[in-house]
Specification:
By secondary structure, the protein is of the alpha/beta class. The protein has 11 helices and 8 strands. The protein has a 5-stranded parallel β-sheet with strand order 3-2-1-4-5, sandwiched between helices. Strands 6-7-8 form a 3-stranded mixed β-sheet, covered by helices on one side. The longest helix is centred in the middle third of the chain and has 19 residues.
């Protein structure tokens, strides 16, 4: 028996013993796999909840709805706002901690009121090697577990299993909330999150793969997959993007020659 199969069997056994469960569901690779595993393990006793706010792109929310239908799990949308938290808005190096604390506290409250035993987080073991203060917030909350970490599943293994299960997310690019694009120390506002969402939508018209528009106040720093750097360097395309992003309120528009890399904003604090 290969290691992935063994881990999935361990996951099924773990989930089967949890009773009624809520899956914190973004529609990304990890949470979609966890939702599918939960639906298999406890069937009608599992529900996926997408806690959406200004930090979640509208396109991601709509995609989560479609993916939940594909998986066949009950799904609801729960409107929250991290912008109600002064600590989150201040955007210091613990921003992710405050975000997770806010989101999962709301999910735990919902679960208790609706007689669900656990709220499940979709973090995988690869997340433990990155700067992820949000994991600490999840660990501190009662009635929250991270099953993919508990059974030792990596991102690559989750993608492999997702492909075998015919999940549409198996090769979906990794995603992160819009607030992760805002440079630490610059306050997070609805206006800035809206700038980022619209800026990324514009850049995605010209390339696929990973796209991030990092918000550095007056500066928009564009990160794309390395193979797309030459695409965005085309003078005709740069003209359209430069004009569009300046119309959104940025003074300067730059293309990061290092390309997309996860957690690039952490370079300033680590």
């Amino acid at each position: 028996m290969d290691s992935v199969t063994k881990k999935i069997e361990e996951l099924d056994k773990l989930l089967s013993g949890l009773g009624r469960i809520v899956v914190a569901f973004s529609g990304g690779v990890d949470s979609s796999f966890l939702a599918a595993a939960a639906a298999r393990a406890v069937k009608g006793e599992a529900i996926a909840i997408t806690a959406f706010s200004e930090t979640l792109p509208e396109s991601e929310k709509n995609e989560a709805i479609l993916i939940a239908k594909k998986i066949g799990i009950q799904h609801i949308l729960l409107n929250i706002s991290e912008l109600n938290s002064p600590d989150f808005v201040a955007n210091d190096k613990n921003r992710c901690y405050y975000c997770k604390q806010e989101r999962f506290s709301v999910l735990v409250d919902w679960a208790k009121k609706n007689n669900y035993n656990w709220v499940l987080d979709g973090s995988n073991v690869d997340d433990l090697s990155d700067y992820r203060p949000g994991i600490k917030a999840v660990e501190e909350l009662e009635h929250v577990r991270s099953p993919l970490i508990e059974v030792g599943l990596t991102k690559a293994e989750i993608r492999e299993a997702s492909k075998a299960w015919d999940l549409p997310t198996w090769n979906k690019p990794s995603a992160a909330c819009l607030s992760s694009r805002v440079v630490y120390g610059l306050s997070i506002t609805g206006e800035r999150l809206g700038q980022i969402e619209k800026a990324e939508a514009l850049v995605k018209r010209f390339c696929s793969g990973q796209v991030r528009v990092r918000h550095h106040g007056d500066i928009a720093r564009i990160e794309v997959s390395p193979e797309n750097i030459s695409v965005l360097s085309n003078p005709d395309i740069t003209k359209v993007i430069d004009k569009g992003l300046k119309e959104l309120g940025f003074t300067y528009v730059t293309l990061d020659l290092a390309g997309y890399r996860t957690g690039s904003m952490n370079a300033a604090i680590l």
